[in-house]
Design goal:
Layout (H helix, E strand, L loop, with lengths): L15 H8 L6 H18 E7 L10 E6 L6 H14 L4 E5 L5 H9 L3 E3 L7 E2 L3 E3 L9 E5 L3 H4 L5 E3 L10 E9 L2 E4 L6 H8 L28 E3 L5 H12 L3 E4 L17 H12 L6 E10 L6 E7 L7 H8 L3 H17 L8 H14 L7 H18 L3 H20 L13 H49 L11 H35 L7 H31 L1 H8 L1 H32 L3 H4 L47 H4 L27 H5 L21 H26 L13 H10 L1
Parallel strand pairs: 1-14, 2-12, 2-13, 3-4, 3-12
Antiparallel strand pairs: 5-11, 6-7, 7-10, 8-9, 8-11, 9-10, 13-14
Helix pairs in contact: 2-3, 7-8, 8-9, 8-10, 9-10, 11-12, 11-13, 13-18, 14-15, 14-16, 14-17, 15-16, 17-18
Pfam family, one: Acyltransferase
Organism: Microdochium trichocladiopsis
Keywords: Membrane, Transmembrane, Transmembrane helix
Amino acid sequence: MADSTKPASKAPEISAEAKKAAKELYPMSNWKYDAFLHTFSILVDLFFREVHPRGAWRVPRTGPILFVAAPHANQFVDGLVLQRSLKNEADRRVSLLIAQKSVHGFIGWGSRLMGSVPVGRAQDKAKPAKGLIYLPDPVNDPTLIRGVGTDFEKEAEVGGMLFLPSAKGQSGTSVDIAKILGPEEIRIKRAPQGKLAMFQLTGRDDLDAEGKLTNPQRKGPRDGYEGTKYKVAPHIDQSEVYQAIFDRLQNGGCVGIFPEGGSHDRTELLPLKAGVAIMALGTLAQDPDCGLKIVPVGMNYFHAHKFRSRAVVEFGAPFEVPRELLDMYMNNQRRDAIGQLLDMCWQSLSAVTVSAPDYDTLMLIQACRRLYVTGKKVPLPTVVELNRRLAVGFSKLKDDPRIIKVMADVRKYDKQLRYLNVKDHQLAVARLSVPTVIFTLLYRVAKILVLSVGVVPGLILFTPVFITTKVISVRKAKEALAGSSVKIQGRDVMATWKLLVAMAFAPIVYNFYCILLAYKVHTDRLYGYVPEWVSIWMIFIAGWIVFPAITYASLRFGEVGMDILKSLRPLILCINPASSYSLQKLRERRAVLVEEVVEVINQLGPEIHSDFERTRLISDPYHGEPTSGSRTEEGNVDGYDEGAGHLDAPESPQALRRRDTTQSSRAIPRTESFSNIGAIGMFASRPPSRSRSRSRQNSMGGGFGMGGFPISGFTSLDSREGFNEASSKIREAMYERGQMRRRKSGFSTDGSTVGDGSEEGWEEAKKSA
């Protein structure tokens, strides 16, 4: 979405008249925002099986907020998911920065309704230039670029940018143009960084991993090297955009930005663009007391481009810009201030996202997580947190022999799973007896046959839409991949185009079905089944109700049916004696591997986290508390666990450490569910509703040691003092819960029953509770 400007860019001073005009540049209408979001949230519910917001209680309910979200895995879906989560969970409306090239047609109309701010990006206006470029002296003068057959005086401009091509799955480098020396010579602001960029500009092989030349005695490029192709982009003036954002934040609004600069399908965070830091520092430079806070948001998807996938939107701890950075920014040290603030944003985003160097490593990390949580029903946010901690541990200790060995063993085990074409959680059927396997197989086949009655009609109706969305999304992914320097397969645009095409094409298809139905009724009253008094318009309207309803029912039945269908293969393998033996041996191999993974995590965990034992997410399966619940064989799509609990996100910069809490609270798991005692199952005033999703129920608690979390013993009730103490705690918790309800209903915003928050009011509330 929003792209960077130069790190040293200055937010220009603008007159009062210009500020007033800027305020009205991208207005937001609350009722239009809510209506549009409510309407298109239906698409989110249809495309995703589950979108779980985590840590939304951290978002301030008032005051200016700059939301920094990453990774940007879906071109337009990310923005819709973020806005929906913020409105539902925190009642905040946010203006997103959107690429100016996208502000056309339906997307442009929708973005204007949502108060989005269009931003011109240099890469969107980059065009191939003629000739080749290279570094004539990379050792002594790495900022001088020379061309062969170029015409920099006509095609480039000072303040513009040069873009090098991507290669071998790596994104190309961009550099700012500082000075044009002639048609074949140009000066850039900084030396090119990275091995790929240096290789493209010198053709030399004597480069280390950071792109530094290992043979500095050799001054020029490789002998006979002519250079590399490139693109040029003009200078883009962002002063109006910046001022509009400054005004919105200073007026207490919210602005959201995806600081990576554009969507991508990589497994790690891209370098953050400087624009996010300039927005924060520029706002505070004009109004240091506006109270601006920065909130990191992790957009964590499981197969982001696939229909009916899952997502966890995680809100990190908000933090403020340190005063010393603002002083640096206002005292001509802008580059240093921007760089340090970008580092803070990077660290805060790393605490709410999962990053891995490549896709294979990410798959291995997730395989280790599945082995580690064997026998436990793990909430979806906990799955994300476990993946993050394992990824951090791998990045720090990847050269440790124990890590190398366990990763090699997991890779071999994963290869055997793929050979048998089964999922990790499906190996549980290997312990079942043959009669049980046969009965289970027949029972599930019968369920699929019954479900197919509800699936087939809707599947037939929606097939044209499925085919069209698939074809167009794949084509758009190829186009995006060809025009991008950071994408790997272009999957980041697939979800967006699936939704857009379905939204446009499905009404056309249903309208065609309704016309056919009306025509059939007009010609022979639908084979005589429709009485004469029923009008054609009634049939047409009824068709618009019945056909979408059939499709939606098919979607729900098909979702369950696909889960059951995926569970049939391991049952069939268990019946075959040859494959049954392989399945059993693989299950035994898995048991050994589980012990190995747990042992390595228990050994290395304390080296990374000093409070490893106190804040562990999963109890040691061989030494910890038993956990309730177990992994089911069906309904576990793609090897991920169902359910979603509430777990506190790791602290962002300037947040308190857990060791600052009391000794008794350290034994309580870091989970939102325990924010008050009334949320614990045994103390809840009413049982959890069965209408809630399983994810919410799983996070409600309900017993000691639930989810593997050690809970310290409660106050002893063998004395009157102990009983009074426990009663007092329960009354305080009930009071706190009542206050939370009042805040949600709007009767109280400051958390006190009495307007002045006096001690008398507190005592009176406790007595009444």
